[in-house]
Design brief:
Helix content: 55-70%
CATH architecture: Orthogonal Bundle
CATH class: Mainly Alpha
Strand content: under 5%
CATH topology: Multidrug-efflux Transporter Regulator, Chain: A, Domain 2
Largest sheet: none
Number of domains: 1
Oligomer: single chain
Length: about 140
Amino acid sequence: MLMRGEWTIGRVAQEAGVGVETVRFYQREALVELPPRPSGSQRRYSPGIVQRIRFIKRAQRLGFTLEEVRALLLLQDGQSCRETRALAERKLASIETRIADLRRMRRTLSSLITECEAGKRPRCCPIIDSLSNRPSKTVPAGPW
């Protein structure tokens, strides 16, 4: 019988809104503590682990990698606002770079699709040409 304040991994997962395998993954990644297993019994988790898992999931939804989440967890005491802000600023800059890259990719694909629809090159497909690394005036050089 479970004592008050001791949960099974299934209950932790349910309360945190994740699957049991997610809890196990976070344990393997050392993001959440693996409680000891009493002899011949199941591991028992404190309800506080739910808050930590929710923290991790919210950080991931904001685009933080597991390594960045690990750093945020170290700063979770609330006394390291400057370091936390610097980490968030770096993440924001990274997201803005990705958005610019996605916009560039959208323009390129849109242009290639338009070129296909217009039938400007009846013997070859501009999309296949660009992916095959054949010269194309439509596809910009450089990283996408």
